[in-house]
Amino acid sequence: RAFATRLVYGTLQMEGSIDHALAHVAPHGEVHGPPPVIDALRVGAYQLLFTDIAGSTQLVHRLGRRYLHVQDRHRTLLREAIAHSGGVEVDTQGDAFMVSFPTAGDAVSAAIAAQRALAAEEWPDGTRLQVRMGLHTGAPERGPEGYVGMDVHVAARICGAAHGGQVVVSRATRDLVDLPHVDFQPLGSHR
Fold first, then answer.
1. Reported pTM
2. pLDDT tens, position by position, 97-139
3. Can you tell me the distance from the alpha carbon of 167 to that of 88, in angstroms, rounded to the nearest whole number?
4. CA distances in angstroms from 67 to 31, 78, 162, listed in the order given
5. 105 Cβ partners below 8 Å, 6+ apart?
6. Which one, 6, 96, 101, 111, has the greatest CB density within 10 A?
7. Distance between CA atoms of 190 and 158, rounded to whole angstroms?
């Protein structure tokens, strides 16, 4: 299956902003296992990626126990893309990830790779797994169980504004990315 990479960006009106979205991704090697310990989390400015399976509740109802395989495979594909781009898995809950990256280019590359891998996968019963992703650049505080602060909330809100299969990035992240294979489309303001 062909997968077109398109990133979008906009402004999130919340004392913060959404900015851009991505397109085009390719699969990478396998990575399994739980996230690294909190000591591995970066301090200072970095990129936050949030992901979430769109329509997961309906998928659970439709697939029943087969959803466990879908969720496990989804996690494997995301972890492969994250590891290949130097990301650190901060948290995973249900079908959602929170990841940090050293650079905006690494974060964008991981999101694109993950979307491509998800699009190329053969899912049960012709399911089309759609994952929304949001990226934001910031400097949240490192707490005892992960990152905290406004930048975490902004990144999560950006992810929530994305549609399944879409990567939305903040203006702050967009301004740091210079990748020749990535096309950003402006979204405008979002409340």
1. 0.79
2. 999 998 999 999 999 999 999 999 999 988 999 999 999 998 8
3. 18
4. 20, 16, 22
5. 176, 177, 178, 179
6. 111
7. 9
Residue 86: the pLDDT is 93
- How far apart, in whole angstroms, are the C-alpha atoms of residue 15 and residue 3? 34
Q: List residues bridging with 9 in a β-sheet.
A: 20, 186
* Cβ contacts of 30 within 8 Å, gap of 6 or more: 76, 80
Look-up: residue for tokens 């405008």? 188
DSSP state of 55: T
Strands 146-148 and 141-143: what pairing? antiparallel
CA 141 to chain centroid: 20
CA pair distance 176, 128, nearest whole angstrom: 31
Largest CA distance in the chain: 44
Q: Which one, of 45, 1, 52, 50, lies nearest residue 27 by Cα?
A: 1
